[in-house]
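Posting here for the record, re: adenosine-5'-triphosphate.
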Amino acid sequence: MGNTNNNSAGARHGEAKAEPLDFIREIVANDLASGKHASTVTRFPPEPNGYLHIGHAKSICLNFGISLENEGGVCHLRFDDTNPAKEDVEYVDSIKEDVQWLSFDWGKNIFFASDYFEKLYDFAVELIRAGRAFVCELTLDEIAEHRGTPTQPGTNSPYRDRSSEENLELFQRMRDGEFDDGTRVLRAKIDMASPNLHMRDPVLYRIRKTPHHRTGNKWCIYPMYDFTHCLSDSIEGITHSLCTLEFEVHRPLYDWVLDNVTIDCRPRQIEFARLNLTYTVLSKRKLLTLVEEGHVVGWDDPRMPTVSGLRRRGYTPASIRSFCKTIGMTKFNSLTDMALLEHSIRQNLNDTTPRRMAVLRPLKVVITNFDEDKVEELDAANHPKDPHAGTRTVPFTREIYVERDDFMEEPPAKFFRLGPGREVRLRFAYFITCNEVIKNAAGEVTELRCTYDPETHGGNAPDGRKVKGTIHWVSASHAFEAQVRLYDRLFTAEDPNKESDGKTYLDHLNAESLEVISDAKFEPGLAKAEPGERFQFERLGYFCADAADSQPGKPVFNRTVTLRDAWAKRQKKG
Ligand code: ATP
Ligand code: MG
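Prediction output follows.
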């Protein structure tokens, strides 16, 4: 077997070792063991018509993963750029950036299907010469009508029996731009009675007088996916062509094309289930609509399930790889719980991320027995479980801010935080007791007046007295103010793709998916946060300085994920 553990993706990425093989890796291992292949050549074949999303990450981790796990394995990045109307270099660039960010490397193996246009044209000519393809003048609608249904055979096109000579001439004239868009197509001549609709004389080429982002105006006929994909795989010597389940019914056509042209390499197409996530859409068409209609600020909006959105949100490459490993490979479509993705990022950030204090909804506390001009620098651990993470100091002063939610005027049982007459611990500081509640004319609480116990320095009472609550805080005179963006799921429906009662995914948008807080208060050191830097704000969640909108000395923080782990809870319940 070509499976060497020390060369595995996991080992290279410093993650846990691989467990039992999934069904695809098993096929690969057998093909290597039997000597069918000396090594593996896989490919990730995005169409550059949108940004990559978490579903693509699954395919990337699979294809690049297999290449890393097998001695001599390679993985190609191939742009499937055959539809000039929807494709753009912006997408090519973003796809490259995202694959690299996930820390995969295609080396010199970057390809474009458009580089094969001349070769593909020659293969089409070969099919025409052999009487296996013809130029059809039916419109696309007529072709659809002739196709029949799964239970009824289709009817032959009236153009089906043209001579090879006539077809060759017409196909050349299509290429030369003599015909308008939609007036002619090249079709394979297979079987209009095939039980598989994809085999009923499928379209191989269409006319599109649209400039292409790489070939410009050189071509006005473009090959269809089913013709391009198998031939591109074969030209590149792909051993295992891994794609999602919807291509299972295309596989006979994949094989038919390769059987009917002169080409040696026979890649094996294997299908796996695509990733679907709760409260999420993963169709590029739908994601593009969200961007174009302004429901989000762009492809990299931190609420988007795109790789660039997750990156901006604060996700790490390791957390995404670990998520993809956890979901595994199956042959049936299912819906994966969003909580599992959130679980992966929490797990990843918990060990490494420095702790800091921030107050999102500030309530002023005046410590009446603390000197007005005094500033006490208190030691604060950067990580509760990792002594190597060291400490920092945080200034303690007479006026501080605490979280509004950490005070209740009439606290119910089990609320162990601040209330009239109650004592709590301020993290890293002292015990304080609330003596007086100040309100404005509208009856809203505007300030708490407290006293601190100087004997409880560091948060421990020498007399052994206990408090049940510990709350976070920042110094009012030293804190700086910055914007925080609290993100929630983009859709309120568990499966927004499911259309019922005339409602579409757009009707399920969550109106509260973004809450902006402009006057949150932060401990002073956070002013120096670098764009993209991650923190755990104690008791609040994991946050990341926004890479696009943070200014030097003036960060903006995105909430990556809260601390509460719904997935872990569900697992425990069993
Ligand atoms: P569209 O939504 O426009 O049909 P696509 O999502 O299939 O496009 P491609 O660019 O064709 O996008 O995808 C590149 C590769 O990623 C393909 O091999 C595809 O099967 C795979 N892929 C796409 N979506 C998912 C998904 N949700 N889960 C797993 N793999 C996916
Ligand atoms: Mg696709």
